[in-house]
Amino acid sequence: MKNNEIYISLFQNNHSVMLVIHPDTGEIMDANDQACRYYGYSWEEMTNMTILDINTLTPEEVKQEMHKAKQELRNHFLFRHQLANGDIRDVEVYSGPIMFKGEKLLYTIVYDITERNRKEREREELIEKLEKALTEIRQLQGIIPICASCKQIRDDKGAWKQLEAYISEHSEAEFSHGICPDCATRLYPELRLNAPINTRATGMK
Q1: What gap in Å lies between CA 115 and CA 119, rounded to an integer?
Q2: What is the pLDDT of residues 64-119, one digit of tens each?
Q3: Whole-number Å distance between alpha carbons of 105 and 101
Q4: Which of 34, 41, 48, 29 minimizes the C-alpha distance to 97?
Q5: Which residue from 110, 94, 91, 115 is spatially nearest to 32, judged by alpha carbons?
Q6: Residue 75: CA atoms inside 13 Å, Cβ hemisphere, count?
Q7: What is the pTM of this model?
Q8: Which stretches within the chain are classed as H helix?
Q9: In this structure, which CATH number among 3.40.190.10, 3.40.50.800, 3.30.1390.20, 3.30.450.20 belongs to the domain 2-114?
Q10: CB 66 within 8 A of CB 26
């Protein structure tokens, strides 16, 4: 009688979703009131079902997971369970072996984490959008005021900056300095080169 009272207190009157599952057949041996309310079935319906009726994994996958729980190789699982109304919910499951009337069964506690997962996905999407926005900020866009003579660029604070400095600050671009054929002819007529000259060759920076 005392053991029965303890069972009722710990299992039947618990506010968490709880199931007792046969590890070999997957039969739902017992379900507390909260489990019946959560899944949308009566106790009679629940105890005439197997875990395969609510778990979206394949029978072989479910069998493997139950084996892990039975052998105590693992006690924490993430599944997707289907309710009586057809809704698919993300669940976090803790399951381990108990002895009941000389038989080893799985005592299982189920937590719905659908809302938590939804918020995590929204957070990840927000981070992705922010990263994309930061990348776009680094790209040059719009009309850029540039001096027609010296080619310096005026930034958003009104300061004039060298072209290279401005572009480096507002983009991921890097510069490799050289000299074009026209400038080489004008500045170094004695070289008379028709191809760009590397700055290392001229000593220029």
Answers
A1: 6
A2: 999 999 888 989 999 999 999 999 999 999 999 988 878 899 999 999 999 999 99
A3: 10
A4: 29
A5: 110
A6: 10
A7: 0.61
A8: 2-7, 33-39, 43-46, 59-70, 114-137, 163-170, 181-187, 199-202
A9: 3.30.450.20
A10: yes
